[in-house]
Design brief:
This protein is of the alpha/beta class. The protein has helices spanning about 15-25, 40-50, 55-60, 75-85, 110-120, 120-125, 145-160, and strands spanning about 10, 30, 50-55, 70, 110, 130, 140.
Length: about 160
C-alpha cells in the first residue's frame, strides 16, 4: 500500500473540525478554520496545492474545487477518518503525533532545560524526550495519551469502531 507523501496537504471545510484534528494526530498537514467562506477555502486550496475535504456538495461543484477535493460522506468523525485514510492510502502510524493538534505545525524537539520550565515536575522527572509547537507553545511527550491515541486510531481504522 502506497502512503501519502509528506508534502500532500489538505484543507478541511468548517464542518470537519474533528476530522482535521484526527488527521493532524496522524501527522497529516490539514488547514482548518472555524470560519472561512467557501470562496476563500477554494482559493486557498488552489493557491497552496491543498486537497479540499468537504461535506458540502455545492462547494465540491465549484470550478476551482473540481478534481481537487474529497466529498466526505461519513456522518461521524470515525467514518470520515476511515474514508480519508482509505481514499488517500495514508499509513496512519508512519507520522503519528508529529504535528501540533491545535496549530498544525510540525513539532520540534525541545531540550531538557527548556522542557523543565514548560511541563509539570512529574512529567519532567519521568520523561526524557519532548517536542513542542513553535506557534502555540504546547509541549508533547510520550505519555499514556500517546498509547491511548494509537489504540483509538487502531480501533477506528481496523476495528470498524
Amino acid at each position: 500500500m502506497e502512503t501519502v507523501p509528506a508534502e500532500t496537504r489538505f484543507i478541511a471545510d468548517v464542518m470537519l473540525g474533528r476530522l482535521a484534528t484526527w488527521l493532524r494526530l496522524l501527522g497529516c498537514d490539514v488547514e482548518y478554520f472555524r470560519e472561512i467562506s467557501d470562496e476563500d477555502l477554494v482559493e486557498r486550496a488552489s493557491r497552496d496545492g491543498r486537497v479540499i475535504l468537504t461535506r458540502d456538495l455545492e462547494l465540491s461543484r465549484r470550478r476551482k474545487a473540481r478534481g481537487n477535493h474529497l466529498l466526505v460522506r461519513g456522518d461521524g468523525y470515525k467514518e470520515q477518518l476511515r474514508q480519508v485514510v482509505e481514499r488517500f492510502s495514508i499509513d496512519p502510524y508512519a507520522r503519528i503525533l508529529t504535528r501540533c493538534l491545535r496549530c498544525n505545525l510540525p513539532l520540534e524537539e525541545i531540550g531538557l532545560e527548556e522542557a523543565r520550565r514548560r511541563v509539570p515536575p512529574f512529567v519532567y522527572e519521568t520523561q526524557r524526550e519532548f517536542r513542542g509547537c513553535g506557534c502555540c507553545g504546547r509541549v508533547y511527550w510520550r505519555g499514556t495519551h500517546r498509547f491511548n491515541a494509537i489504540r483509538l486510531v487502531r480501533e477506528m481504522l481496523e476495528g470498524g469502531g
